[in-house]
Write a structure and sequence with these properties.
The chain is mainly alpha-helical and 116 residues long. The protein contains five helices and no strands. 59% of the residues lie in helices and 0% in strands.
Amino acid sequence: MKWALAALLAAPASTGTAAARFAAPIYDPVALNIGLNCKWQQRCIAMQQKAMKRATGFVRKKQPAAWRIHQCNRNAARGRYRVDWIGFDNCIRNAALRPTPLPRPTIRYRPHLSRR
């Protein structure tokens, strides 16, 4: 009897913490981004969050050049506003990464008007 009463009292507390942990991520853009990238699979979300913490810690500690951060953001982009944090973490730590060369200016020729 004591165990049944204890289980009944503990049940709302455990569901309350689970509900808080899995609350709608509409107000947390980072969780929403990761959830959409992972299609709400818990293992993938955990890996993305771990990579996000590693990458942000690395950027905070090492303060890499701005070109490196911009290039890794472009490489890790999954759509316009979505980022793959595992790809960003791998890119930002890559020692062999070199800046991309500037694009060459394109020369546009106008067609000549033929004389009649």
